[in-house]
Design a protein that fits this description.
Blueprint: E1 19-20, E2 23-28, E3 33-38, E4 44-47, H1 48-53, H2 59-69, E5 74-77, E6 83-88, H3 89-101, H4 107-127
Parallel strand pairs: 1-5
Antiparallel strand pairs: 2-3, 3-4, 4-6, 5-6
Length: 129
């Protein structure tokens, strides 16, 4: 019996690279707060779960949003050694905007969209200096 040598075996399949988070911190204003993480490339991310529960939504709604847009989360190892799916802040802002424009938002999505947009613009301005 011959085997197909072109097919990878179970041991040969490659897992996607897992990035290591370099820093954990809180992004907060007077009325909004979310835990964020820095990746080695210097970009700020939020876990998919945190993206949803910060604004009192089920994590499934955030996953469905990402799937609808065809966005694959980044797999990263956090400081506590847990591995989580993460997305960039721009995606979080898009999620909040989507909820607000579809009528499913709330005060947290409004405040979060405003605060994170301002934070992202300040971060980009600082990096362009």
């Amino acid at each position: 019996m011959t085997t197909n040598t072109n097919q990878p075996t179970k041991n040969q399949t490659q897992e996607p690279a897992i990035l290591l988070v370099t820093e954990r911190f809180k992004l907060q204003s007077k009325s909004f707060r979310v835990t964020a993480y820095k990746l080695p490339d210097g970009k700020t991310t939020v876990t998919v779960r945190q993206m949803a529960i910060t604004v009192r939504k089920q994590p499934k709604t955030a996953k469905d949003f990402l799937k609808k847009l065809g966005i694959s989360p980044i797999t990263a190892r956090m400081p506590n050694c847990c591995v989580a799916d993460m997305v960039y802040l721009s995606t979080v802002i898009d999620y909040f905007r989507y909820l607000n424009e579809s009528g499913r938002g709330n005060i947290r999505t409004l405040l979060g969209q405003e605060f994170l947009t301002k934070h992202l613009l300040e971060e980009e301005a600082k990096n362009n200096r």
